[in-house]
Amino acid sequence: MNTNKQFTEVKFGQQIVKVPQGGYYDRFRMNPNLDEVAQDPAAGNIDFFRKIPKKLVESRVGPVWAPNFYYRTANVQVLMLAPIQQLRKKLPAPLEVLEPFPGYGLVALTFFTYSVCDNDPYNEASVAIVVRKPNAHGPHVLELMNAIRKRHFYAHVLALPVDTEIARVRGVYGYQLPKWLTEINVDINSTEVKANLTDTTGKVDLSLVAPTPTLMQVPSESRINKATMLHMVDDVWHQTLVESNTLSFAQKLLPRKVKLVRHGGPLSQLLDELGASTILRLDVVKDAQVVLNLPRPLKTK
User: End-to-end CA distance of the chain, in Å?
Assistant: First the structure.
């Protein structure tokens, strides 16, 4: 991480943004020399990324290098039950809530920390509704089982606050995602996970504390997880694929000791409006490598 706190101005589309001087964005402008990245002890082994060539592609903000690489990341997620009627109020057509239990769907609250990545270290929080795969048919419970087996879920993100301006600008102007700037803290160690974020006035919005389940270490590329975000870009439905090479993780079904406190900020209010209640699963990812692709138009029948 950059510790001298000196910043330099860069241009992203029509936006002028300050980024850490000498950081990854300043040095590489999203097109890193992987041999140089490999020399960064904080990045770890980056062979996974060498198989994914970056391309200069057209986007809504002009030519950009894609996909985006996150060399070292961690996250904590709670998957919650929510009444289907509440979820439908928040989900635009033609998206359909995945309903694995009669009358109930799933809401995912996730805190991410990206310690080494193409657009410099930052933290992020997400509230998303788990949705059906586009053009899916058949029983919802079978679709959920397939998603678990394939480790590929589809979601519609309702909120995605971040704690750096370059992350906000890239998300809003590059992807049209619901991002805003706020303070976010994420601490994941072998015994405890802690995460919180503030509202725009500096008061705590949401806080999460839980004991860390027993972590498993797995070989690189043995556990690839995928998530596809379905969202509107310039009034057209798009899908954005996120691929994760998980290296260290833990899961706990029906966890009892998760303390999730809603302090009344925008994310707290959103969870209340969704009716998110019982925590079905706690997922902790201590170490993962992530590839974020650019949005592409969604093909619907």
Answer: 46
Query: DSSP E strands: which ranges in the chain?
Result: 7-12, 15-20, 55-59, 62-66, 68-83, 104-117, 122-131, 152-159, 184-188, 192-198, 204-211, 216-217, 224-233, 236-253, 259-262, 279-292, 296-297
What distance in Å separates the CA atoms of residue 42 and residue 115, rounded to the nearest whole number? 8
> Would you say 288 and 71 are in contact if contact means Cβ atoms under 8 Å apart?
no
Q: What is the pLDDT of residues 138-171, one digit of tens each?
A: 999 999 999 999 999 999 999 999 999 999 999 9
Token pair in block for residue 68? 């985006």
The DSSP-derived string for 82-135 is EEHHHHHHHS-TT--B--SBTTEEEEEEEEEEEEEETT-SEEEEEEEEEEPPTT
**Contact of 73 with 112, CB cutoff 8 Å:** yes
